[in-house]
Amino acid sequence: xxxxxETVVIRTACGIVDGVRCGILAHVRDGVLVKVEPAEFPDPRxxxxxxxxxxxxxxxxxxxxxxxxxxxxxxxxxxxxQRISWDEALDTIASRLTEIRxxxxxxxxxxxxxxxxxxxxxxxxxxxxxxxxxxxxAAGPCADEITFGTQYGHLYTMDVKNPGMVVLWGANQxxxxxxxxxxxRDAKESGAKLVAIDPRFTGSASKxxxxxxxxxxxxxxxxxGMMNVIFEKGLHDKAFISQHTVGPLLVRGDNxxxxxERDIAPGDSDNYVIWDTRTKKPRTHVEEGTxxxxxxxxxxxGVECRPAFQLLADLAKQYxxxxxxxITEMPAKTIEKLATEYATRKPVASYRSMGxxxxxxxxxxxxAVTTLAAISGNINLEGYSEGYRRFLFNGGTMLYGxxxxxxxxxxxxxxxxxxxxxxxxxxxxxxxxxxMNQDPDNNKVMKELVPHLEFIxxxxxxxxxxxxxxxxxxPTCSFYEHLDLLPPLDILSPYVQxxxxxxxPLYESRPDRDIVNEIGLRMGLPKDFPLxxxxxxxxxxxxxxxxxxxxxxxxxxxxxxxxxxxxxxGFNTLSGRIEFYSERMKEYGQELPVFMEPIESTRRPQAKKxxxxxxxxxxxxxxxxxxxxxxxxxxxxxxxxxxxxSVDAAARGIVDGDMVVAFNDRGMVKLKxxxxxxxxxxxxxxxxxxxxxxxxxxxxxxxxxxxxxxAQLAVFEPNSAMYDNLVEVRKAG
Amino acid sequence: MAKRYGLVIDLxxxxxxxxxxxxxxxxxxxxxxxxIRVETIGGSHRDSPKGxxxxxxxxxxxxxxxxxxxxxxxxxxxxxxIHKRSDGIVMVDEKxxxxxxxxxxxxxxxxxxxxxxxxTVQKCTLCVHRLEKGLEPFCKICCEAExxxxxxxxxxxxxxxxxxxxxxxxxxxxxxxTRPAVRYCPTKQGRIE
Lengths: 733, 193
Hints:
By secondary structure, chain A is an alpha/beta fold.
């Protein structure tokens, strides 16, 4: 670094906001980051920056940055710390982890992280990796696993070219993911109708041609109601259904399984069977020249068989407009019009974020919307395959050896920690995962989980709610202070980008990768365990994955490089088709995307005591709990607020600006109320991410539950149902 | 040749993301406050609509110095600390300003900011320091919604002039007679304020 006062501009990529790939030009003067600006890409559409990334200097030079390793000197959470040397910190951690590992087995050490460097350590130690996706993001991928055989199937319904209509299903890209918003805007400016379905009137909804309010968690009933309209009007895409979905495959009436060739002919062929309307005979799905029936009942192998589409149509029939309207609390006319447009303004792009799938049965909401898209032919196979290639990275390159750490769903970790099932977790290492702030049922976390943990390590930039409960806190670097690689991401970015070391690590902070190396060596791992950042990057680039072909560290230093095409054809399901009917979900009564009432909805008995649906949505003013301490953003969004409609406020004698308490059997939170018309009566919302100290009392996650959905557990992993909780609100005394 | 620099802001595009505010703070080293603000045209709160749920509406209105042709702040300043450049940019000379804030009262847009630490008035300069290097205003560069157009309003070929023509971009408070160089493309519903 020069001392001349000259500004050096270094290209990097944003490491602040998850799920985003903005390029950044970092201006450095005398070794100090002084400014950032959006960086160019070969394709100018990808030049973006948001308010959050523009706060980089505030983040890096924040006065509260952790400056050196700390050892707990009082009780957990008491806030008494002793400064220790790195050697002491690393030695202590290594010896404690070794001791716990010896006593309780390797899987008793667990990592819950957003920082990938730790996967290497966890794999080498045969330890547990707690997947953070269970914090609210697991039900959509679970549903897509069922329907498409991939976690990212929703892109089939979203990445649609030149749409005639865009539907935002509980999604608010204008606020939470403005990078997606440009696509939505472009569609709108090209004449697409924009519809927003949401219990909140969001920034995105304010841009819509039509805003539709919905009772939270009833999206599956809406989608089924729409399907019924489409079927009755004959607007479904029969060719698409026949060709790409399980629609024509016959399902046995006795056991709900697909009829196989072996059921009706000698041999052991597991070909699926369809009813050919031309020859009026059963034929296998692989035979050409057939005209498969989508409807009807056929007696084969001694049982009544129906095409899967017929079963779907039978289900949809249970949701005539009157019923769908009664469940969703949407006018019947609105549903009918939306359904008709959905089938006639093709192609329709269905945008979903995670809100739709954050109810207990969110996977079913997700599957129902996907099914609606499939039966109306609103699936873009071509566009999606383009998107898919961008998801890459060979996870194996992150490991030491070839064994992944033992995977543990987040909500299952609660049981592992408290009751030792399926095995005990005794040590927890958090890096970039604010467990004590973000995860559901915060009282349970603090009062039951934390005391059961023998040892807690947190690597962080700040003294977060989680760091406060650690035994050892290690100061880590920001992404400006060490070398890393940023992979491409779905349709948002086809580029691999380098995050070079822009400035030296501040204070005594160290990159996570160094910490991993040091702990590994101290725990007796072989000499080839440590990996420098450069070695790691080289490893990923030379992994042999087709997408990485021709990409080198040298050309990445010059700028972002687009990954090689890696197209997929067909679907990764057992049938190779879109499985809106799923054999394996039969035992849960969910072989079709049925509607199930949210477990804590306003129509449940417990609503007598707690009559308000509680949401904790995401905002443009931060990224989870990460930026809650950034002064520039706090100037704009100064304090947590409970959003409440004027109808609910009046019924409780609450006026705008009052201090209120939101509570249920699990906990409470005390904060100021924002009474306004941007939220549906019967629903309240607190934007997530605020730290405990921002609230007058309690925390927004005290109100949520950590109930496990067994169907999700069987397929993928259970999701936190953050938007499926009942509360009552009263004026604070 | 004299220019008339101005901004055109597309209110149909603006999503109220506040990126312009942070961009302004960063570019002009403003620890507190900003020379651009984003108002919610809706309910009494930021990010809240008017009307009765669910029949509600809201849009966002970024407000900054309008670089008026007839700047009332200039006339109000007793120390002649405010001047209008030949390219149309209205500037405050912080060396001359004694912080009397007469200009704040005179501005119909509330676009001037008093810096209590420096005891002077500040405001948007259209990033004049960037223009001198051939760069555009930083808020324009960073606008996530691509809602800001910059250019010479006297040049019909500039992107700003083209937007004014295409979208009938109008000014805030035309009745004030200030003739602003910041124009707004109305929302689809034809709304500005």
